[in-house]
Every structure is written in C-alpha cells, then in structure tokens.
Design a protein that fits this description.
This protein is 22% helix and 28% strand. Strands 1, 2, 3, 10, 11, 13, 16 and 17 form an 8-stranded mixed β-sheet that branches. It has a 4-stranded mixed β-sheet with strand order 23-22-21-24. It starts with 18 loop residues before the first strand and ends in a 39-residue tail after the last helix. The protein has 417 residues and is of the alpha+beta class. It has helices at residues 185-200, 208-211, 231-239, 250-256, 276-293, 296-302, 318-324, 349-359, 368-378, and strands at 19-20, 24-29, 32-37, 43-45, 51-53, 55-60, 65-67, 71-75, 83-88, 98-109, 112-116, 118-119, 123-125, 132-135, 139-140, 153-162, 167-175, 180-182, 215-218, 223-226, 261-266, 306-310, 332-335, 344-347.
C-alpha cells in the first residue's frame, strides 16, 4: 500500500516501529516559514565527563488500528494512546534541562516533514520516577481529508532546553509509521461496537432474558420474526439491527441456543471440592477481573476457562463462522464437534437454567467506576450505560408473526480451535 503524501511515496508496513528521524521540520506560523533540523543521535555526558550514547525506548498504552485498506489509522476524536518515552542511560547524567515534545506532521519531500498541531500537553520535562517522559490525553487536531488524503507521522523529539541562554539543543528524534486520521461517524461506531461486544461477553444477564421472546425486525417494514433455537436464529440474533445491545455471555448462549452449543468448564481452573454453583460464580468473577484489570498473566495462567462446542448436527457455513467472532473472548474456547479433552467438564444446559437463577444475585459484575475506566480506554462517551441484559431489548416481544426460517447456504466448514 502506498501513502498519498504529495511528493513522496512510502510503503506502509504492518509492523509498527519507531525509527530515527533525520529530517527537517517545516513550521509555518503567522505566515512565516521556519525550518530546523531534527537530530537523530543522542549523546549525554556520563559521570566521567565522557560522551555516551543514550538509548531511547518508546511504549504505547495500546496499538493503533490497522486495516488492509488504509493501513495504520486512528480517529480524530479519540485520545492518542498514552506514550511513554524512556531513557536507558546507566551512568549518564540527566537533569532538569532535558525535555521531550510530541509532534506530528506530514511528509512534504524526502528531506522535510511539515508540522501540524496536536491538542493537549505535548512538551514535558523529564520525570525522574520513570527516567523518561509520559504523554497522555493528546488528540489529533486535523484529519487526512483536510490534508488532501495525506498520512500523519507522530514524532518524539528529546532536547536540552537552556533557559539561561534561551537555547535549545536537539538530542534524539524518532518518527512513527504513517497514520491515516479519520473523522467519520462510522469509525466512532466501530469503537462503540467493540466496547459493546466486550462488555456483553462478561456482564451477567437477568434470568428473565432466558424466558423472553427475542424478536427481530425484518427489512424496512413492520414484519417481525421470533428468534428460535437454531443456527439460523443465532445468526439472526447477532445481526439484528433492532436489538442494539446483545448478550454474548457464554452462560446465556448455552441456554438460549442449547440446540447449537454444549458448554464446558476447565477442571484445571477449579481448586478443591466445589459445587457447580461455586464454580460458575468463580468463573464469572475471573471474567470480570480479566476484562477490567487486563491481567495478561491471569489470562496466561488460566488459559481458557470455558468451552463452547458446536454440536455435531450443526452445519457451520460462512454466516455462522463470521458471527462466532462476536462471542470469542480471551478466556473462551470455541470448537467444532470433535471430541473435547478430559479436563473439560460438561455443564448440562437444563440444569444451568435453574442454577443460574439461584446464583444470579451473587455474580460479579462491572461496577460503574470500572465501566467508566473501560469507556475511557475505548474513547467513547461516558453517557452510554451498561445495564442488565434484560433491559437491552426493547418492546419487541409483543409481535406474534409467523416464524420464517432462513436456510444456511455455502459449503460446510469446520471451526478451528
């Protein structure tokens, strides 16, 4: 894929990697054009008064989005993931004169990058607690469309600021891969959908939802269809536009679509002698802790807690295969009808129904403060509420139309683990 920056064509790589920046920065202010060189080699004085190279390490809170169509991309309204710039300077003198600024720009030619503004605090002093610099709550101020389709580059510049002599000396500059900055509503909706999918996989649902008829609207008219317990019904439920907040919790799927799925729990996760009620409560607590704390070590230790097995008589076509991605989560394994390992213990869906009603009040759930933190992580509005799944579905159960079954089409495929 090729950038559309005006005079320069650069290949976009799938690998996100900061590289040395040996370019000139073009700054336009009040009609005046200023050019200055961005230094790419960092040397500081060590304790023996010798010049010594300083290594710079850059870490981000999370990665930017990547797509085959535009490459690395981000939305103008989203906060740039927190960026930590660390100096690896053993035995090197660092002082309060060292600062770092976060810049952005578009490539003008092979020698020049033109500066564009950012929103937020973009020039910070050295934080001795981390021996580096932290940039947080920064946003882009322009989009690629405003720059004739050009891609943006983030630039980290470390420099010495001598206030006594009013001079600045560049030490090290690193530049990011190209970023396409969007502002369309569809991009914001993508983040909102990802948030809804994530929370709906772990937030407990009210038992009433298991008895409630799930109704979908067909087409643009007023024809309604009732979702049944079949592969067709499962597909209809996950793509229904009138059901805006869907429940994707494994406990719900195993009961509402019990003709499709068998549910198992991992016996290696369970410690000691526990009842099935205690086991399900413990698993729910771990699901919540994992999504909220983002504990990679926790995910690694427990691997998969639950398994949804697609029953043998279910044909897995392209539609079902695609919709299974909506229920996939770090602690849930989805597999076809092949035999499961001995460490997986089957949970009878008929017993699960009565058990769930008893344990529902005891199940861990995302609290308001946890929800707020997750929303901040997804950069979506804080006024979106996460309520019990019984409140997700509005008043569609009153429709009582003849049920229509849509036949699955396409070749049968196996679902890989």
């Amino acid at each position: 894929m090729i950038m559309r920056n005006k005079s320069l064509k650069v290949k976009i790589s799938k690998k996100w990697e900061w590289t040395n920046c040996d370019l000139n920065m073009h700054i336009e202010k009040d009609g005046v054009h200023i050019y200055r060189h961005l230094e790419s080699k960092c040397q500081l004085v060590d304790n023996d008064q010798n010049l010594k190279d300083v290594l710079v390490d850059i870490n981000q809170q999370r990665s930017f989005n990547y797509s085959k169509r535009v490459g690395w991309n981000w939305h103008k309204s989203w906060k740039i993931p927190d960026i930590t710039v660390t100096l690896e300077s053993d035995g090197v003198i660092t002082n309060n004169l060292i600062r770092c600024r976060l810049l952005t720009g578009i490539i003008e030619d092979v020698y020049t990058v033109k500066n564009t503004p950012l929103i937020g605090v973009i020039d910070v002093p050295l934080d001795k607690n981390i021996n580096g610099f932290l940039f947080t709550n920064v946003k882009f101020n322009q989009t690629s469309y405003q720059q004739d389709g050009s891609y943006f580059h983030l630039i980290v510049e470390i420099y010495i600021n001598d206030e006594l002599f009013n001079t600045q000396q560049g030490l090290k500059t690193l530049i990011s891969p190209p970023l396409f900055i969007d502002s369309r509503k569809s991009a914001r909706n993508t983040r909102r959908f990802q948030y809804q999918v994530l929370t709906s996989q772990v937030q407990p649902f009210h038992p009433y939802l298991l008895q409630k008829n799930l109704i979908i609207r067909q087409g643009k008219g007023n024809q309604f269809l009732q979702v049944d317990d079949s592969a067709t019904g499962f597909n209809q439920y996950l793509v229904a536009q009138n059901i805006r907040q869907k429940c994707r919790h494994p406990y719900f799927l195993a009961q509402k679509f019990q003709s499709i799925f068998n549910l198992y729990y991992n016996a290696k996760f369970v410690g000691g002698h526990q009842t099935i009620e205690q086991i399900l409560i413990q698993i729910q607590r771990t699901l919540i802790e994992t999504i909220y704390k983002k504990d990679d070590k926790l995910k690694f230790n427990y691997n998969k807690l639950l398994l949804l097995q697609i029953k043998e008589d279910i044909a897995v076509d392209g539609n079902l295969q695609a919709n299974l991605s909506q229920i996939a989560s770090p602690l849930l394994l989805i597999q076809g009808s092949q035999q499961v390992d001995n460490n997986w213990i089957h949970i009878d869906s008929r017993q699960l129904n009565s058990i769930y009603q008893r344990i529902y009040p005891k199940l861990g759930r995302l609290e308001d403060q946890q929800v707020k933190i997750i929303k901040d992580d997804f950069d979506i509005s804080s006024d979106e509420s996460v309520s019990d799944a019984c409140q997700y579905h509005e008043q569609f159960e009153t429709a009582n139309q003849e049920r229509t079954v849509i036949q699955l089409q396409g070749p049968i495929k196996k679902v890989c683990c």
